[in-house]
Write a structure and sequence with these properties.
With 271 residues, the chain is an all-beta fold. The protein is built from one helix and 15 strands. The protein has one domain. A hairpin with a 7-residue loop joins strand 3 and strand 4. The chain is globular, with a radius of gyration of 17 Å.
């Protein structure tokens, strides 16, 4: 988990804008960064918005002495894996393929956002549950054209913490063999209190093949489909974003084979 800055700094006046196109195959992940303003108190060093393109992280810290699977107890923690959004900041991403409001999606969820929260505990959720890495409340907005925006409300980026593998321990130093599906949501009727005291094995059962993420139904916006997603911080405490996923475009067997390429960069995200 990134360390929080000890004090606020002046709000970043420069908004990073990204233009250009890439020929690429269809996938369920965000494809380009439209704009990013880091805000007044982002976590130092975690300000590369291109880290949010492509699939969520399954394994973190390959270049450190303590590599780990990504689990609800061990979220991503490297600068190239997550981006921090401080007070007054925002991140806007674009999907090449529109996200459709589809009632046939599991639980009616159309969009997933993967953040950086984790449960405090050595492989078992506390009772009551306690979390780290949640940060402040995020305002989620969506748009079909990047001009007119509809709000999905203000949300804590907590449930459900990312789960990379179904057959790993909470802090395993090697990848598992059974990947979760990052395009499948967890049942949104489950609340934080329902997770009290659960072990990782019980969480895996509850996730039911899902890789986690915060789920959103587009129906309340009245939009039939959207292409842009904006996450803004009006709450004051920085939060981190890992990735975005379209529930209606699942990869085969929960695995997307092609890596994403940043609009302003030719580097591939390693998973």
């Amino acid at each position: 988990m990134p360390r929080r800055a000890s004090g606020a700094v002046a709000v970043c006046a420069l908004t990073m804008c990204y233009t250009g196109t890439q020929a690429r195959a269809a996938d369920p992940w965000a494809d380009s960064v439209v704009s990013y303003t880091q805000g007044s108190d982002p976590v130092s060093g975690f300000t590369d918005p291109l880290s949010t393109l492509g699939s969520p992280e399954r394994f973190s810290g390959e270049d450190t002495p303590f590599p780990s699977v990504v689990s609800p107890f061990s979220p991503p923690f490297r600068p190239h894996e997550i981006v921090s959004v401080g007070a007054g900041g925002w991140l806007t991403v674009r999907f090449d393929e529109p996200i459709v409001d589809d009632v046939r999606n599991p639980f009616g969820v159309d969009l997933l956002i993967f953040a950086n929260a984790g449960f405090i505990g050595a492989g078992q959720v506390g009772a009551p549950p306690a979390m780290f890495g949640v940060g402040g409340t995020a305002t989620i907005e969506v748009s079909a054209d990047g001009l007119s925006w509809a709000s999905l409300g203000d949300h804590a980026l907590d449930l459900f913490p990312t789960l990379g593998y179904q057959d790993s321990g909470p802090f395993d130093g090697a990848p598992g063999s059974v990947r979760t599906d990052f395009t499948r949501p967890v049942d949104p009727s489950i609340g934080l209190a329902d997770l009290a005291g659960l072990t990782l094995a019980q969480l895996v059962d509850l996730y039911d093949g899902s890789g986690g993420g915060i789920g959103f139904d587009l129906a309340p916006t009245g939009l039939s489909e959207i292409t842009f997603v904006r996450v803004a911080n009006h709450s004051g405490e920085a939060f981190e974003i890992d990735a975005f996923a379209d529930v209606s475009v699942p990869g085969p067997g929960g695995v997307t084979l092609l890596a994403s390429v940043g609009v302003c960069s030719s580097r591939r995200r390693r998973r």
